[in-house]
Inverse folding.
């Protein structure tokens, strides 16, 4: 019968529709160049525009209605060990410990409606992750054991574990994000424990971080070098290296982050995002018009293979600012979501012994460089160097990298062993600086670099004993407890052989070749990583908390 046939077809269509919708959802690609990550949870717009309630933060699902946003980090779990030893989180006007029911004996709010929204967003092909930290002092670990325990707690409460205190109910998030402002000890063991759990999970999980643009980041620097990250949302705002100084070689430092991604990170596929304020009221400095950010982002996309997209702070600000997020997504997509072609090394080849003036460009070691000021040294990716890498070029090979990959013994993720450094050239000065090449930020050392993977029996003659009061750069050597140790990167007060993992043992000293404490040390004029961080952290706390 015709009527029965039509009814049959309608029933089949009804059954197939959900399947067809799922097929139409574009799967997230971590290797893409046009991803947009937008933080949600803090009602940043409402915090500084209290009278404009119409533009306050909306429910999470509201921001998943179209294809603009690819990743949504939920901000923040801002207390690790609160009431009852449980974590807590504050999602501003959406869900918080004051206005919502909390699990008995804890300050962890029940956010069931957010859980439903998470599932909705994931059904549209978006990653929804959990951001830990923010501008708070209530995060961190006392030791590695506590860090591993917290990884299990987070897994049980937000991922595939079992817990009676699951804020989002049965919803399972897609990964974690570290937005850590201080106290970086034990975050590598935390991530190692989380990776061990997630590697055995039923889907792919991602780990991201949100360091300040000043390289190396004062809080996350050590963790970024020793744990596997899939993407980093570098905050190019509230700092001298922010977007407002994109055209200034002595400040803008995306090249340092590209070098980190390709030559230092334990994950050679890690992607670096340009972190930007989504409106003038979203940060203390660094906001760019849509046209400006589009130009910067597409230029960087075509200049550095590590570029992965743009991160915006935050969703409420982007929507109130005429869908700033949608505009930047359009620009990135137009530039191409896949494929990278290395630009030609169009600048003149660097000539040793030549004096270059400010702004001069040269090609060397797989990069095009611009002189920050007067420059006479060989171009190298060092924070306090005379040169700034403004584009990768040629084959992209970088034999002159001064920041080799760290050697680690822990399995970071997915069965890929971390590479072991076999040689180390002159190392970068350790500093969280403005990038200006001035005499007070220079460091000098005459110590001989040695391979972290050297066999025992290294020559310790003339090598200074380790001192907790000395700042050491990567490649510096010390003696400690009868051993010869080499620093992987900048460090101060981290004990050789300690949990920070900064030092790698290069050999064993015999009584006859132990060095004296009079051997060459790092110059005391090296600027400490925290020298500028505190100034801009106070600004950031007003907006990114």
């Amino acid at each position: 019968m015709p009527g029965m046939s039509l009814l049959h077809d309608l029933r089949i269509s009804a059954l197939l529709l959900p399947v067809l919708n799922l097929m139409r959802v574009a799967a997230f690609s971590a290797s893409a160049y046009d991803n947009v990550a937008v933080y949600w949870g803090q009602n940043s717009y409402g915090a500084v525009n209290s009278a404009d309630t119409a533009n306050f933060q909306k429910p999470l699902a509201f921001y998943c209605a179209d294809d603009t946003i690819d990743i949504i980090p939920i901000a923040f779990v801002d207390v690790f060990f609160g009431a009852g030893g449980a974590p807590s989180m504050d999602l501003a006007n959406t869900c918080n410990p004051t206005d919502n029911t909390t699990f008995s004996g804890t300050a962890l709010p029940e956010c069931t409606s957010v859980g439903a929204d998470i599932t909705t967003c994931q059904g549209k092909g978006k990653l929804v992750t959990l951001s830990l930290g923010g501008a708070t002092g209530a995060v961190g670990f006392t030791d590695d054991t506590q860090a591993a325990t917290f990884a299990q707690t987070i897994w049980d409460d937000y991922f595939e574990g079992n817990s009676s205190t699951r804020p989002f109910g049965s919803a399972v998030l897609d990964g974690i994000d570290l937005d850590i402002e201080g106290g970086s000890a034990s975050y590598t063991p935390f991530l190692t424990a989380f990776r061990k759990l997630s590697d055995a999970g039923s889907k792919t999980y991602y780990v991201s971080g949100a360091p300040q643009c000043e390289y190396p980041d004062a809080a996350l620097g050590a963790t970024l070098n020793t744990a596997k990250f899939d993407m980093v949302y570098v905050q190019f705002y509230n700092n001298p290296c922010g977007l407002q100084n994109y055209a200034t070689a002595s400040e803008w430092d995306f090249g340092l982050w590209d070098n980190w991604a390709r030559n230092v990170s334990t994950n050679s596929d890690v992607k670096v995002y340009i972190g930007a304020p989504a409106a003038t009221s979203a940060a203390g400095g660094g906001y760019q018009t849509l046209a400006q950010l589009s130009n910067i982002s597409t230029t960087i996309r075509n200049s550095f293979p590590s570029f992965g997209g743009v991160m915006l702070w935050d969703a409420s600000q982007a929507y109130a600012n005429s869908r700033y997020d949608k505009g930047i997504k359009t620009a990135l997509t137009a530039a191409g979501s896949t494929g990278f072609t290395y630009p030609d090394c169009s600048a003149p080849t660097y000539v040793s012994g030549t004096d270059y003036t400010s702004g001069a460009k040269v090609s060397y070691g797989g990069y095009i460089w611009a002189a920050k000021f007067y420059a006479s040294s060989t171009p190298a990716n060092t924070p306090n160097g005379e040169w700034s890498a403004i584009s990768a070029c040629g084959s992209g090979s970088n034999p002159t990298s001064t920041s080799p990959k760290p050697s680690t013994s822990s399995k970071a993720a997915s069965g890929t062993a971390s590479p072991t450094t076999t040689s180390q050239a002159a190392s970068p000065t350790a500093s969280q600086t403005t990038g200006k090449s001035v005499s007070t930020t220079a460091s000098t050392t005459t110590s001989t670099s040695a391979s972290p993977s050297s066999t025992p029996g290294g020559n310790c003659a003339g090598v200074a004993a380790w001192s907790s009061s000395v700042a050491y750069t990567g490649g510096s050597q010390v003696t400690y407890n009868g051993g010869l140790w080499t620093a992987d990167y900048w460090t101060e007060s981290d004990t050789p052989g300690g949990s920070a993992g900064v030092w790698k043992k290069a050999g064993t000293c015999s009584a006859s070749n132990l060095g004296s404490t009079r051997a060459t040390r790092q110059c005391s004029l090296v600027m400490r990583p925290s020298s500028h961080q505190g100034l801009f952290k106070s600004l950031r706390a007003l907006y990114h908390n």
In short: The mean pLDDT is 82. Residues 2-24 form the longest helix (23 residues). The chain has eleven helices and 16 strands. The two ends are 65 Å apart (CA to CA).
